[in-house]
Amino acid sequence: MQHVQPISELPVMEAFYTLQGEGFHQGRAAYFIRLGGCDVGCFWCDVKESWDATKHPKIAVKQLVSDAAKYPGKLAVITGGEPLLHHLHALTELLHQQGFETNIETSGSSPLSGNWDWICLSPKKFKPPVQEVIDQANELKVVIFNKTDFEWAESFAKQVNPLCKLYLQPEWDKASEITPLIIDYIQAHPQWRLSLQVHKYLDIR
């Protein structure tokens, strides 16, 4: 394997302190770092402005962690875009040095980098996840856009490790239509849990 030099700065769309609104860590205070750049291109993505990394300023990793450390919550969530387009070892190392728990939200479409306490895999049909991310995922969160997505979600549930938490999440613009279907599905398949984008209901970032 070719050695990759750690990078000292990353393209950042935004960074902010809020509550985690989705999945296993829902409701926890968290510092989000949203990196620019994505090669997946989901048509229903609600942060399309993150896709082009060149449109976002590069910020020093040390500065990112220093800004995060100003807040009392010690959960850092790295998201995008697709954060695994970037080499993330330096970022996670400095976050750990500052006492942070490191979480990543990823489609898994690029090789894993960084030292993570929690990996949330949210696979997308437009570019499938690589096997190493599937194997190491702590959480599988599948966005349900239509009825056929349930079968697609099950195909990944069969691949993740037995301890991986399983979540189904309605696509936001179709939530009123899809949420009842997810509720019925989970009642019939109780290994799954419901993930709602609570931050959108609360109208917070």
Annotation field: number of helices: 6
| The named CATH superfamily | Aldolase class I
Query: Order of helices and strands, N to C?
Result: EEEHEHEEHEHEHEH
Number of domains: 1
Largest sheet: 9 strands, mixed
Which percent bin holds the helix content? 10-25%
Explain this structure to me?
- By secondary structure, this protein is an alpha/beta fold.
- The protein has one domain: TIM Barrel.
- It is 24% helix and 25% strand.
- Strands 3-1-2-4-5-6-7-8-9 form a nine-stranded mixed beta sheet.
- Helix 1 (61-68) packs parallel to helix 2.
- The model has no long low-confidence stretch (mean pLDDT 91).
Structural topology:
Layout: E1 9-19, E2 29-35, E3 58-60, H1 61-68, E4 75-79, H2 89-97, E5 101-106, E6 118-121, H3 131-136, E7 139-144, H4 149-157, E8 165-170, H5 175-188, E9 192-194, H6 198-201
Parallel strand pairs: 2-4, 4-5, 5-6, 6-7, 7-8, 8-9
Antiparallel strand pairs: 1-2, 1-3
In short, what is this structure?
By secondary structure, this protein is an alpha/beta fold. The protein has 6 helices and 9 strands; from the N terminus they run E-E-E-H-E-H-E-E-H-E-H-E-H-E-H. It has one domain (9-201): Aldolase class I (TIM Barrel).
Structural key phrases:
205 residues; alpha/beta; TIM Barrel; nine-stranded mixed sheet; 9 strands; globular
